[in-house]
Structures are given as C-alpha cells and as structure tokens.
Specification:
Blueprint lengths: L1 H22 L5 H22 L11 H27 L2 H8 L2 H13 L5 H17 L1
Helix pairs in contact: 2-3
Length: 136
Amino acid sequence: MWAVLALLSAVFAALTSILVKIGIEGVNSNLATAIRTVVVVIMAWGMVFLTDTQGGITHISRKSWIFLILSGLATGASWLCYYKAIQLGEVSKVAVIDKCSIIITLILAFVLLHEEFGIKSVIGCVLIAAGTLFMI
C-alpha cells in the first residue's frame, strides 16, 4: 500500500507544479504560497476530524511536537523557495532540481537515522545527479 500512496504522492506533486505555474501568473509568490497553505491546513484538519483522530493531539510527546514543528518550518521554507523558483523559471527545470532532495534525503537518512546506504543507493544517487545535470 505504501508504494501506491507514494506513487499518488508523485502524481499530486507533479500536478501541483503545473497548477501553480498557471495560477501564480501575476501573483506574488509568497501570497500564492500562503493561499496554498491555507487550503492544505483546511484539508489536513478536515481529514483529522473525518477520521475522528483529533483526540490523539493530547498524547503527542514534547519531542514529537518539536520535530513536527521543525518539519513544518522546513516545509514552509521549501514551498516559499519552490514557488519563487517556479515563478522565475521553467517548471521542467525547477522540478528536476527540486528532486535533488532525494539525494539529500538519502544522505541525511544514512547520517542521522542510520538507515542502510548500500551500493544500489550510491548508484541511484549518482544516476539522479547525472540525470538532473543532463536535464537542466
């Protein structure tokens, strides 16, 4: 199931890039990011209430709160940079460079989370980096 959800995530992320490029024309990128964020907040809380999981908020540990907040700040910074980049550049190039996050994620997962980083991961990172350079 995780693979299906990951594929759907990729499809929706691709749609996001195309839809924002069309919608951001003549709009400040920070304002566009704020509008998108409000929609995401409404949708996320809607799912919490739809699945009746709002009661779990009292059981979240301090450590989880800290890291969820830091994750939110990183997401916000990413979105602000991404929107400005899309406004200034071509979606096809911005999206490709943005996907370098895969390489950074693999390295951080190895260093910080001590996840396995085998030969396949190294080859994959090299191919992603080469493909990124080739496409831009």
